[in-house]
Amino acid sequence: MTDGLVVVDKPGGMTSHDVVSRVRRLAGTRKVGHAGTLDPMATGVLVLGVNRATRLLGHLMLTEKRYDATIRLGVATTTDDADGEVLATASTAGLDEATIRAAAAEFVGDLMQVPTAVSAIKVDGKRAYQRVREGEDVELAARPVTVHELVVTDVRVSDSTELDVSVRCSSGTYIRAIARDLGARLGVGGHLTALRRTAVGPYDLGVAHTLDELAENFVLLPIADAARAAFPALDLDEGHATDVRYGRALDLELAGLTAVFAPDGQFLALYEPRDGVARAVAVFTG
Question: Which residues does the entry assign to the active site, renumbered to this chain (predicted)?
Answer without folding.
Answer: 39
